[in-house]
Amino acid sequence: MNNLIPIIYASTSGNVEATCQHISDLLREAGFETSLHRAEIVDFKVIQESSVILLATSTWEHGEINPFFNNILGEIEKNDLTGKSAGFIGLGDTRYEQVLFCKGIDILREAFIKAGGKDLSSPLKINGEPYQYFNTTVLNWTNKLIELLKNESA
Ligand SMILES: Cc1cc2nc3c(=O)[nH]c(=O)nc-3n(C[C@H](O)[C@H](O)[C@H](O)COP(=O)(O)O)c2cc1C
Known about the structure:
- Strands 1, 2, 3, 4, 5, 6 and 7 form a seven-stranded mixed sheet that branches.
- With 154 residues, the chain is α/β, with parallel strands linked by helices.
- Strand 1, helix 1 and strand 2 form a beta-alpha-beta unit.
- It has helices at residues 15-29, 45-48, 70-77, 103-114, 134-153, and strands spanning 5-10, 34-38, 52-60, 64-65, 85-92, 118-119, 124-127.
- The longest helix is centred in the last third of the chain and has 20 residues, at 134-153.
- The radius of gyration is 14 Å and the shape is globular.
- The chain binds flavin mononucleotide.
């Protein structure tokens, strides 16, 4: 186990990627070490060797997780993740189907918890282009996460 916080994300047009990069910058400014990993190429060992991670995905095609996450989702489903905590970051768009808004991150979160992991806080969910939320919703969510992480390690 190490103190690095890996951020594993699936992103097709770059919205999730930009959001994760921004959150990574905020965490680094607060003194945490982070690493960014694309879900389609990350080794599952990155999750196995961490106690705290961030997982991020967009939603595609009527409530499906971004397919770049499929391999890691499969690994999460067949492994024991007891003792691990994760923060969840979902991007979506209410113009598709409101009930399926950010369903991808819900699928990921449910699988992580079923595998024995726990969530650090309620998921961050972003509707549409994320940039307009960087200094508000994203900043607030990340600050809350930083507080939780500092309390956990105190
Ligand atoms: C074909 C298509 C289907 C989508 N389906 C959904 C959906 O079912 N639910 C949702 O919340 N967002 C949906 N979205 C919105 C994307 O999740 C959103 O645009 C997100 O910001 C994309 O992030 P990414 O480019 O980093 O993958 C869809 C977008 C496209 C283009």
